[in-house]
Structures are given as C-alpha cells and as structure tokens.
Amino acid sequence: MxxxxxxxxxxxxxxxxxxxxxxxxxxxxxxxxxLPDNFHNSLLNDSKKMSKKNRNLLRMEIEQRAIAxxxxxxxxxxxxxxxxxxxxxxxxxxxxEGLKIQPEHIIVDGNRFKDFSxxxxxxxxxxxxxxxxxxxxxxxxxxxxDEFMEKIAKxxxxxxxxxxxxxxxxxxxxxxxxxxxxxxxxxSFSLYGKLSNGK
Length: 199
Hints:
By secondary structure, this protein is an alpha/beta fold. It is built from 6 helices and 5 strands, in the order E-E-H-E-H-H-E-E-H-H-H.
C-alpha cells in the first residue's frame, strides 16, 4: 500500500515521530518533517521495516528535499524525571519548535500528544506506515538516534549499543547485570528484567 501524502489536504502539514522510546539507555529522539508536494520515494516506510542502508539513503534525501525538518532529543536523566511518554512528547515539541517554517497542521504517530502552540494536530496509530511525512520523521529520528548510540557505544563497548541500540535484548540485560548501569541508562526503567531481585 502506498503512503498517503496528507491527512488534511490544503494545509502545510508536519509529520512527527519518535525513536528510542522502549530502549533501556540513551535519549529519546524525535523528528518533525514538512515534505514538498512532489516528494516520492518507493523505499519510504516505517523506519523499523527498512534496512539500515535504505534508512541512511532516505535520511540524506529527506534532509535535502524537505521544506523543513528538525531532529531533537530528551536525555535519559530527563526521561527519569518526567517519564518516557512526557519525554517523547517533549522531544516532538522541541523538533516542531526547530522547524524554520511553521506547519498549519501536525500529524503524530501514536495515540498521545499534547497541544503544540495553537496548531491543530491529529494522532494516528501506525501513522509511520500510513503517511509520508510521519514515515520521513521516523527515518530521521531513528537514524539520528542510532548514530548517537553508535558513538557512545565506543565508550561502553560491553553493552553492544552499536548493535542493539540499547533496547532490552538478553545480551544487553546480561551486560547490565555484570557491569552495572551507566550514566546513560534510564534508571526508572526495569533494567534487569524479570531476573531482578531474584525473580
């Protein structure tokens, strides 16, 4: 199924999505993207369904061709203070604030968002596989976050963040048990999984 250009035709529409919400470490990233009317790329889809190579190719094209785009993040420490839902929305708001052109309508992947400025918004579950601008935002958020995780993985190679991107894989949880948490870990998350406290 081809992705739709607009949710509300006739308005300058920004798509928003986040990456890293379920990870055990690192920031949550978000992107906001306004695409031109003629944007088309058959590879574009929900970033999780794409290969790393295609995501990186699309990142370059989106950043070159978008009318406006911005990527923002919220740190692990802030996630612990305000919770991951609020941090994800805060990152999206930061990305929207960074757009050089203000949108007239915002479409967001998922079912939760908070009003941004006085701009109307629509929440769309599975929006990253339905609308071009949300899919583009998912690509930017994921590639920028992956790039950051690969960078800090060099400081903490034992956790394999360059491969697992700090998601709760068995190997990542085992590394936390052996080496303990780092300053990048989200202490409000269940870092040790079901085996914590002897369970």
